[in-house]
Design brief:
The protein is of the alpha+beta class. It has a single domain (2-130), classed as 60s Ribosomal Protein L30, Chain: A (2-Layer Sandwich). Helices cover 27% and strands 31% of the residues. It is built from 3 helices and 6 strands; from the N terminus they run βββαβααββ. It has helices at 47-64, 82-87, 89-99, and strands spanning 2-6, 20-24, 26-33, 72-79, 106-111, 122-130.
Length: 132
Amino acid sequence: MSLEFVNPPELATPRGFSHAVVGRGRVVFLAGQTALDADGRITGAGVVEQFEQALGNLLVALAAAGGSPEQLAGLTIYIVDMDDYRANSRAIGQVWRRLVGDTYPATAGIGVTRLWDAEALVEVQGYAVLPD
């Protein structure tokens, strides 16, 4: 497995994401995860706590598929309140670095009016590239 993070100088310097990721290996597609606990209830009162639970859930699914956080190649974050998410971006970044590290996949943040679970503030979906 190899990932090459591509950030062309012609584009703005990315913060918290990579512009492109080239991967060689097996691809694992990860379903969207919200802040559901093992009993199927949304946990966390705020976006930071919910992001941590949702990302943690995504990483559990990735580990069960044989992968690890540094193999994440792409991530989509669905956000109910973009202003709240941006206001908490530093704390969310700290969660990311604690759970994943200092590498960043190709990422998109998309504002939505609501998620499947009405109490969910954020949903994280992604894909990873594992060794053949």
